Amino acid sequence: MTESPHPLLPTATPVLRLDPRTLQVGGVDGRRGVRVQPAGADIARLLGGLDGRRPERAVRAEAVAEGVPGDLVDELLAGLRSGGLLHDLAAADLLATDPGPAATARAATELPAAASGPGSAGRWRARRQSAVVVEGATRVGAPLAAVLAASGVGRVHVRDRGATTAADTVVGGLSAADEGRPRGLAAADAVRRVNPLTDLRPLPADRAPDLVVLCRPWAATDPLQVSLHRDGVPHLIATVRGETGIVGPLVLPGTTSCLRCADAHRRDDDPAWPRLAAQLAATEPLPSGATVTCLLTAATAAVQVLAHLDGGAEPAVLEATLELRPPGLLPVLRRWPAHPGCPCGAAARTATRQSGHCGRE
Ligand SMILES: [Zn+2]
Question: What's this model's pTM, rounded to 2 decimal places?
């Protein structure tokens, strides 16, 4: 038996009265709203009760007990659903939020986006149970960790052994007051500021993270990515190289092209690349990127991380990167298909699937 969904009409969705017989739900944000007629106080109460806490059959039974015809309730919920106004939660989603009024209030702003679109039941729970490791409390990594925690990711651990410098300061990340402190601790504080209940602990040896985000500029040549690939841990690049924000590729080991594939393409374009890359990776990179570049990169990366964790829309950066270059910072998608010479074997699998990749843009 399938579980009855728990319909949620987000509290921020306007319910406006047009006349004594008509209510308009939504329709003030560029999308079409839903007009409900006849809509007296009983329908207004029904709409106000769509708080995601009760299964649809209970909502329907209560409305019917108040005298609203059952088929009218069904029609109303179907109309709200097809208008994209109603979000369906699972019972497990409700249990996945931390207890207490503050956690509930924070979840109320985050949950509707997590539960958007078809098949949304269970996504919030998946996000809440996820563990993400952020490698590098950089000007992208620290705000990204905070964004993920604020978005409801249950466990966010930031790894960094360096000390905070004045140049690390960025909105939402490390602060000027952190100068001299260990960057890892300062990043944990940045996470706590937005979500005090986030689990910040390192993962135990027997639990692999759901995703590792590599936030140092030249992680493509980092030995770390080799071990992630070997261990089958999904990993994503989110960094600023020079002045350009880079998000992607998201590597699903054994399935998609990897960071070595991307490196091999760069070597094809320029045989000197390995010598250059080795020098780039050999020294501690200086903090870089304007604040707007870093924050946009962090937010763009967060969208991809959440897509991966929630299991809803497919992340845009599978076998691709999004590049954000000042001054416009409009994201540009660049494809990085599997390289036939890479030992990861993704190229052979791609050929087998005949998925139709035809090269970089
Ligand atoms: Zn590869």
Answer: 0.91
